[in-house]
Amino acid sequence: MRFYTSVCSFQISKIQDIVNPSVGFAPDLSIWGWDERRTVWVSIVTEGSTHYIAAIVVTEPLLSAQCSITGETIRPNAPIVGVNRLWTHPAARRKGIASETLDVIRKWYFTGVLVPRTRVAFSDPTDIGRQFAERYLRNEGQSNCSVLTYRVSK
């Protein structure tokens, strides 16, 4: 099992070289963070005989997040999933892959709890990331589309 972990860590470090600059992070910023509470989710798509990584999402459990419209701090009366980084392959964009991946994460992140879309927070989203988050909430029937955000801890 140790070999598997080290191989995965090596592959993830290669992935961060692609993902970090794409989402506005420094290329050498660690995926794991100082407390190593983050989880990396990878969505692999098969098209014909071709397989490729369609999405990578780095998540972390949160104790609080801020409402982007009011600035109000939301505390956990229910679990909050923090999306530290979300990247989709250019060929997979606008196909629902990121939404599907987040839906899987919401189902499996906390044992026995389906986290509502309204309890998913995004770390310092780019303009495109904010647009995605608003669409993601709108698809849940949220009319005000107030995105939860949080500051990344190194």
UniProtKB/TrEMBL annotation:
Residues 80-140 form the N-acetyltransferase ESCO acetyl-transferase domain. Transmembrane segments: none annotated. One of its GO terms (cellular component) is nucleus. GO terms for biological process: mitotic sister chromatid cohesion. It holds the Pfam family Acetyltransf_13. One of its GO terms (molecular function) is protein-lysine-acetyltransferase activity. This is N-acetyltransferase ESCO acetyl-transferase domain-containing protein. It comes from Teladorsagia circumcincta.
